[in-house]
Amino acid sequence: MKVKRQINPAVKASRKKRRLKYIAVLPSLVTLMNGLCGFASIMFASRGLDTVWRPLLLPRVSMSYFALAGYMIFLGMIADVLDGHIARISQSTSSFGAQLDSLCDVISFGVAPAFLMLKLVEAHFRLLPQFTDERINAFFPRVVVFIAIIYAMCAVIRLARFNVENREDEASHLSFAGLPSPPAAGTIVSLIIFQQDFLPKISEWQGGFFRNLEAVTIWALPVITLLAGLLMVTRIPYPHVINRILRGKKRFSTFLLVLFTLLLVIWNIQLAMVLGFCIFTLFGIIRKLLSPLLFRGKIEKQTDA
């Protein structure tokens, strides 16, 4: 015979008070657009190399579904940037919005880039002449799967840690502990778009060097994915570029750098994405390695003074 559990009326009343009654509609819709883009990226990546996307309204445009999946992740990044700014402008920031944002980030910047990298490397591995050693044929795909799993799990840990340590004050949003998940995904996806949508067009009239670069990019992807995943769970400081640029007055050199970046994006967006995300990812590592030398130089200057 089951005994019905008695719930304290005070506890029951407190649970009712915790129920979510109001949410900010516009920021939440933009955040969900981020998750939708991540889901669309997974859907397009599953189609492989055999099909090419040709939109009906733009008959001259054609690209592989791997490149289209990468662009979906970048569209999710735009939504991820907009939802926070819309919430702050409308003064509708909430814990619900923060949790929803992290859940969508797990899809768009955790699962989707890992799945896209996995499917692309597997597709190219099948096109290669198989190695005579069967152990290599069985070992390499498992390594790529393992790296994809590590990256996705590191993204989940990174976002969970961010939710626990995040504070509402503005000063806490000027830097990050560890590589943020959007730049980590951007580093992987920009290389995929560069390999799928830029190098094939160049190799048609430039020859063998760019074809070899296509192959090198594919086999470098698992290593870069593993590095990006591990950087997310480190404590290496990374600046919040958008908040630092938009907050307050800046030097004229900063204005020239932003202008040069915009011109590079207009001239060739694929090349601009690769350079931007790779430089940002390496920036934290280089600064971490050079910080002891810079700190020692400051101490020596103070001692001489």
Give structural notes:
The protein has one domain (about 25-165, about 175-240, about 255-290): Four Helix Bundle (Hemerythrin (Met), subunit A). It is built from 10 helices and 4 strands. It has helices at about 10-15, 25-45, 65-90, 95-125, 135-165, 180-205, 210-230, 240-245, 250-265, 270-305; strands at about 50-55, 65, 175, 235-240. α9 runs antiparallel to α10 (about 270-305). The longest helix has about 35 residues, at about 270-305. The protein starts with 8 loop residues before the first helix and ends with a helix.
- What's the gyration radius in Å? 23 Å
Q: Provide the β-strand percentage band.
A: under 5%
Task: Assign the structural class, choosing from mainly alpha, mainly beta, alpha/beta, alpha+beta, or little secondary structure.
Answer: mainly alpha
Structural domains: how many: 1
For this structure, the CATH topology is Four Helix Bundle (Hemerythrin (Met), subunit A)
Termini gap: 84 Å
Low-confidence residue ranges: none
User: In sequence order, what are the helices and strands, one letter per element?
Assistant: HHEEHHHEHHEHHH
Report the CATH architecture: Up-down Bundle
Widest sheet: strand ordering: 1-2
CATH class label: Mainly Alpha
Number of helices: 10
Sheet having the most strands: 2 strands, antiparallel
Number of strands: 4
Shape: globular
| Helical content (DSSP H or I, runs of 4+) | over 70%
